[in-house]
């Protein structure tokens, strides 16, 4: 989840030419989080299907559970919420990460429900304004105190003021005003919580919007979902909403969550930039999400769009061959999230593209106008910007620069800039895992679409390198990954980190389940040469022989292997992965197109390890090393769970008398012999 996530590795995307294929979108974040809260606030049970599984929805589910609401997993993408109003737990401290779709609506619901809570988030959440919402809630009797800067989270919510204690001396107001110009989430939060207020007063509540309402389509999502839960709000244009006196949420039984239309924008862009066709399942012309209108944007830029009830198909020029999209000058007030995708596409246009009325970008996950401006310039684009606008000039072939793109812990920055892969230099995305906020599987899905790969393989290619300790797996894996421009997974490091964490926190290494919990909760990040365990660089520490030996012991536990399995698979992303360990080819990536079993005579290995340890400043005795390696090999080979054995289809490479360069060459040649070419 976002509050524990540390910036991860970088991802190199090689230049791409064509994109085509089919994607089933993950559930809409906006619908998922609204539906979760509405289901929690009504009487009866609701099953939500197609629910998004991402950082932001996990934040919402965790908060609801903390508040005593029963939320049960009911199969893939499905949860069952047993609504309970008011929430049973009346006091608590909620950490809501950077999830605006959780923070704002929960602030409103909790402050009108009664109870004492503290709500906080990541530092960026504390820079995102909430004053307009708090002011409105106070007129309804809410007691909210800022714990930091006035107008911003964190907040303390106190007990509701009694009806007669309103600050105006009368009952809580039946009319509330809220500004519409900063974030539409304020109005959404008030609307969703309004039935709690009318249940108290017994009178209708009138909500008036001051100023122009931004991102209006998101309000339509709110109103339509409230209607599904039995509350119909009367609207007078965008400026006046009346919640009836008898408003009370009722469980609809089942809600099917549409695919995420903002996420669809990246795949529409893929079709528009890489020829297509790209078929996007899960949203279509019947969608209730405003961002589906991004199809009009790509169409105006020259793409061909076919709209169906629940899918959209996009084809377009092949920009990598020099074909261009049409430039635009557009107001993006209604679709600010998808608008970011247009800004990235602008690099491939036939003239400057201007995005207007995007002031809300300033208060999103990051200041997106600043971030977009800065990162587009790194790629060679000329960019201009103002308080609420951005102009991007197209990048010609000779202007493109190879760049490493910072993503500002903003999922949309990472996803937008993946589109820079259609430039001639490719692109590096820093901290690509920030996409977990809305679409953890984005990069594998993106990679599958590129250069005619769609459908040809289930996931990006993996070269596995398994073998005994000190056979050179890690060294060779890094060098091969470097030559191919791929990512690398040192799976042994995860077992070593588990061992180190067990050692450091005093866990009993014989207690399988306790060790598995440590493995499950490992807080690790790989950053270049650094291996961070809870933020501390332990790259050298985990290389110690005793840590390796403990790693080998705990690696024999089935629950530990299970706990680390998906974490390892998550490293698989385009354009490819080189993974080293003991069971990479047999268990973790059994479909890898190339599997290497790297061996070397035990004496050669002991000598290499001894030299390596001494270079890192640790003492080493050859005889001891020989003995401990033999024991480790034996344990790794004979354990019941995922033993060290060559996969049936592995190629054995003996590096005893090869240099590192020679070993790398053997692997790259094997890869090329499969019909794949090393890049550069
Ligand atoms: N031909 C070779 N191939 C690979 N590594 C070699 C070779 N010759 C010497 N080495 C050295 O062997 C040492 C051990 O390599 P490395 O740490 O990559 O092994 P490993 O198999 O990943 O070990 P472990 O499984 O214990 O992590 C390194 O210092 C590396 O430079
Ligand atoms: N895929 C893996 C990787 C490692 N292990 C275990 C066995 C090793 O002895 C230990 C340390 O690994 P190394 O860093 O030496 O590669 O971790 C495993 O069981 N499966």
Describe the structure.
It is globular, with a radius of gyration of 27 Å. The two termini are 37 Å apart. The strands form eight sheets. It has a five-stranded parallel sheet. A four-stranded mixed sheet has the order 2-15-17-16. The chain contains 21 helices and 31 strands. The longest helix is centred in the first third of the chain and has 18 residues, at 184-201. The protein folds into three domains: 2-26 and 266-455, Enolpyruvate transferase domain (UDP-n-acetylglucosamine1-carboxyvinyl-transferase, Chain, Alpha-beta prism), CATH 3.65.10; 29-256, Enolpyruvate transferase domain (UDP-n-acetylglucosamine1-carboxyvinyl-transferase, Chain), CATH 3.65.10; 462-673, P-loop containing nucleotide triphosphate hydrolases (Rossmann fold), CATH 3.40.50. α4 (131-139) runs parallel beside α5, α7 packs parallel to α8 and α15 (512-521) packs parallel to α17 (558-569). The chain is α/β, with parallel strands linked by helices. Residues 469-476, 492, 548, 580, 608-609, 612, 655, 658-660, 663 line the site of adenosine-5'-triphosphate. It catalyses: 3-phosphoshikimate + phosphoenolpyruvate = 5-O-(1-carboxyvinyl)-3-phosphoshikimate + phosphate; dCMP + ATP = dCDP + ADP; CMP + ATP = CDP + ADP. Its EC number is 2.5.1.19, 2.7.4.25.
